[in-house]
């Protein structure tokens, strides 16, 4: 009997060619089918491996396997978020009013938010991500870097939007010009999805009981 796959590669809600002219079909297809699929396949394999070594009582091997599992599951989570917060170039939309207001409250203006986000993305050392996050207790939006796939380093913070700045995300189209890639990101952001995530988190935080 085949091992049940826990993690699944998500199907994109747009065609590989629909992010043109900001990302080519070749770039998007390779990113999704090779790199994201690679994290999914590895995460499923590691899950099976951990189960196997536990059955054999080889607990010394578990630590190494779980570290690799965290890396690959983190990659899967971040890529899934990334695909969701993109949309075809011909559907470019304006910022929803509620999200625009929250960005202005948190950063002073939308322009300042974009500047800070671009600086964060461009200054990632090596492989990583730029992320817009929401902190319910502070009721604020923040921008942070995520090294590699370390989503576990953001306790009590919720990711609203991410930009992949691993070289595999842009090298076919932009080569070494990360700044150009980062600037083009604004042309294909699905702002409605970002607002939906914020709205759901804001509603959830208001329903949570106050801490004593």
Concise synopsis of the structure shown:
This protein is mainly alpha-helical and 212 residues long. Helices cover 50% and strands 11% of the residues.
Give the termini separation: 51 Å
| Sheet with most strands: strand arrangement | 2-1-3
Q: Could you tell me the mean pLDDT?
A: 92
- CATH topology label of the largest domain: minor pseudopilin epsh fold
CATH superfamily of the largest domain: Iron/manganese superoxide dismutase, C-terminal domain
Q: Please indicate the percent range of residues in DSSP E strands (runs of 2 or more).
A: 5-15%
CATH class of the largest domain: Alpha Beta
Please name the CATH architecture of the largest domain: 3-Layer(bab) Sandwich
Number of helices: 7
How is the main sheet built? 3 strands, antiparallel
Structural class: mainly alpha
Number of strands: 3
Please state the CA-atom Rg, rounded to the nearest Å. Answer: 19 Å
Low-pLDDT parts are none
Order of helices and strands: HHHHEEEHHH
Helix coverage percent: 40-55%
What is the number of domains?
A: 2
Q: What gross morphology would you assign? A: globular
């Amino acid at each position: 009997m085949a091992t049940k796959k826990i993690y699944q590669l998500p199907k994109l809600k747009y065609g590989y060619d629909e992010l043109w002219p900001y990302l080519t079909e070749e770039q998007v297809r390779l990113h999704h089918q090779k790199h994201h699929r690679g994290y999914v396949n590895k995460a499923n394999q590691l899950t099976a491996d951990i189960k196997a070594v536990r059955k054999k009582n080889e607990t010394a091997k578990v630590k190494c396997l779980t570290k690799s599992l965290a890396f690959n599951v983190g990659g899967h989570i971040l890529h899934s978020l990334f695909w969701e917060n993109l949309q075809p170039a011909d559907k470019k939309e304006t910022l929803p009013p509620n999200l625009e207001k929250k960005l202005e409250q948190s950063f002073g203006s939308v322009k300042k938010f974009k500047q800070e986000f671009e600086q964060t993305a461009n200054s990632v050392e090596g492989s990583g991500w730029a992320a817009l996050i929401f902190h319910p207790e502070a009721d604020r939006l923040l921008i942070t870097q995520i090294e590699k796939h370390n989503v576990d380093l953001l306790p009590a913070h919720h990711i609203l939007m991410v930009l992949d700045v691993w070289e595999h995300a842009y090298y076919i189209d932009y080569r070494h010009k990360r700044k150009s890639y980062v600037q083009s990101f604004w042309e294909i952001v699905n702002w409605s999805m970002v607002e939906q995530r914020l709205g759901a988190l804001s509603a959830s935080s208001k329903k949570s009981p106050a801490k004593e």
